[in-house]
Write a structure and sequence with these properties.
about 200 residues, alpha/beta, Rossmann fold, 4-stranded parallel β-sheet, 6 helices
């Protein structure tokens, strides 16, 4: 059960409770990859070190954003502190999202609670600020990033948790359903990761 769930917006809390009932649908092969991430987080917390996760995707637009936002939200849901993770589907799940500029690469402030700082989400390279430059886990969310980034500078762990790109549905009648499905998969898997963390 969540320890900080009262802080999370009610619609997101309800969605997370639904996702938490779906752990048994995660294939064992994926659980092995997710357990690697859980173990990394647990080791850092046991050593009283900050946990920095950077979700990497070649185009840094969908899967890595979902990963970053759902991981940070799952950490808060389970009361796991000291985690930093450096948009319409998320709005449908209850996130409050505001655009801070109208540039070609807009910044979005994503909130899951009034009690926690908003997540600054924007397209960036893994080497760009505010991403950490050392002592972090690089979580690769697409096969192209895995192929083109054989070395992720500064990362102390390189973890592969691949997701199918929802972009395949862009401009089709299935677009909204495909994005919801991918978001729910990532939300469920990030909840699974943080559900076993002990502080």
């Amino acid at each position: 059960m969540a320890t900080n769930a009262a802080d999370i917006f009610p619609s997101i809390d309800a969605y997370l409770k639904l996702c938490a009932t779906k752990f048994e649908t995660i294939p064992q092969s994926r659980k092995l990859a997710l357990d690697e991430l859980s173990n990394y987080i647990q080791q850092k917390l046991t050593k009283k070190q900050p946990v920095q996760l950077t979700f990497i995707c070649t185009h840094n637009s969908r899967r890595s954003h979902f990963g970053q936002i759902w991981a940070q939200t799952a950490a808060a849901y389970y009361g796991v502190s000291a985690i930093t993770c450096s948009v319409n589907t998320l709005r449908l799940n209850g996130f409050v999202i505001t655009t801070t500029d109208n540039s070609s690469n807009p910044h979005y402030q994503v909130q899951y609670s009034n009690q926690h700082a908003a997540i600054d989400a924007f397209s960036k390279k893994y080497t760009d600020a505010p991403n950490p430059n050392k002592d972090y886990a690089a979580v690769l969310t697409c096969s192209h990033a895995d192929e083109t980034c054989p070395i992720v500078f500064g990362a102390e762990a390189r973890l592969k948790i691949m997701y199918e790109d929802p972009k395949i549905s862009d401009g089709t009648p299935q677009q909204e359903a495909v994005y919801k499905e991918r978001s729910q998969q990532i939300a469920t898997e990030m909840l699974y990761v943080f559900s076993s963390i002990k502080q």
